Amino acid sequence: MRFSPSTIGSRLLPGRLAVRAEPWLLRLEELLLARDARGEAGRNALLAFIIRVVNAAIAFLSQVLLARWMGSFEYGIYVLVWVTMIILGNIACLGFHTSVIRYIPEYKAKQEYAELRGINRASRLFVLASSTAFALVGMLGIWAFEPVIESYYVVPFYLGLICLPMMALSDLMQGVARGNAWVVRALLPAYFVRPILILVFMGVALLTGYAPDAKTAVVTAILATYVTTILQFLSISARVDRKLPPVKPVFRMREWTAVSLPIFLIESFFFLLTNADVLMVGRYMAPTDVAVYFATVKTLALVHFVYFAVKASVAQRYSAFMHGGDHAGLAAFARETVGWTFWPSLAMGVIVLILGKPMLMMFGEGFTDGYPLLFVLIGGVIARAAVGPAESLLTMSGHQKICALVYALTLALNVALNMLLIPLYGLWGAAAATGIAMVFEASALSFTAWRKLGIPMLIFLPSTKHEVA
């Protein structure tokens, strides 16, 4: 007997409600039971969405506890250090963590198993080497500029850089899992296991007498990251090796590097853009202000994770459509992903505005000062959601260079507005700068996707005749 949401709905719901719910239940049934590539991508998006929902709850709870344990000043220091390490860990991959998502489906489709084994092996070694170099350069930078760095940041930043190679390796292994459409293995380590371990290790540290400060928090985050990444590496590597025939690896480092470096620019600009407001608040304002602003941004996670869930599940399908030569299928699927992104984001935005103030109250006294900022920030997030994962579409279709240019311009605009507005308007200036930059980013990506691919990536634009046919 086949599971059927529409049948169950008609039996359990009252008559009028069952009639209204039937179209939605039929769509859910199609999503859950379809055996084609579209159905797989939809299920992966739903699974990624669920994981990110759980992650949002865990992350929010952990940040609330950390803020209450440490106080706003020490929590603000920890936030700035940890956000910086997340950005550097992603950048230190030099684009390989995203290019593997493109190459793995391509090599599988062409049965080029020697190249597939080669990129799996080379990417791991490359990322470990590059991230270690980033960490060493970072430590030299702290040593050189220590006289002009606030003293309370120095030791936590030194400690944070120890974590950098594992942060980068975790991002790479997430990319390998996404390239193989293993959604759970891709998202669970970083979005479930690591935040829980940080919370557990911090609790143990406080119970054993360590000070509730930023240094203790960074050390516990390092331990959690090393444990999570090593387990993630062993698990994904073992599964990859089991599924590959025992062939001698072929290395195309020149080609892989040429593709990865523009992606590196895109990812660098994207991560800096996503976190530029927090970094700029840390540059111009006190750690307590960083804490309030970051708590506000974390409250936005319920909206953000819709975009990231869809992006995590569809990039591999974009690549498969492109290398399969199915442009009509790519256009239709890409348009669907816009709806997958926008409508849940809009619903989550309304929920966050309703619950935002009591959520911020959980962090402690003074954190509700960030609630009015949510109205500006959510507007920007909804604008980004209105164009779907257009960045992934452009990257997977070979337009990574122009995508990098879009993000470079957006980042420059964001930083310039932050430098101008934060000294004048404080946290309101940071929120306004970020909101304006998000609207510009969404507009530029949508226009670029239309010009380069002929695909209207915007929620309220009708499908083209080519798509409908």
How do the helices and strands line up, and which of them pair or pack?
Blueprint: H1 5-12, H2 15-33, H3 37-70, H4 72-91, H5 96-110, H6 113-145, H7 151-162, H8 164-179, H9 183-207, H10 214-243, H11 253-284, H12 287-299, H13 301-323, H14 327-361, H15 373-385, H16 390-396, H17 400-425, H18 427-453, H19 465-468
Helix pairs in contact: 1-2, 2-3, 3-4, 3-9, 3-12, 3-13, 4-7, 4-8, 4-10, 4-11, 4-12, 5-6, 5-8, 5-13, 6-7, 6-8, 7-10, 8-9, 8-10, 9-10, 11-12, 11-17, 11-18, 13-14, 13-15, 14-15, 15-18, 16-17, 16-18, 17-18
| Strands, count | 0
The level of helicity is over 70%
The total of helices stands at 19
- Average pLDDT confidence is 85
Uncertain ranges: 465-469
Distance between the termini: 35 Å
Q: Strand portion, in percent? A: under 5%
Structural class: mainly alpha
Approximate shape: globular
- From the alpha carbons, calculate the radius of gyration and give it in angstroms: 22 Å
Largest sheet: none
Order of helices and strands: HHHHHHHHHHHHHHHHHHH
Assembly of the depicted chains:
single chain
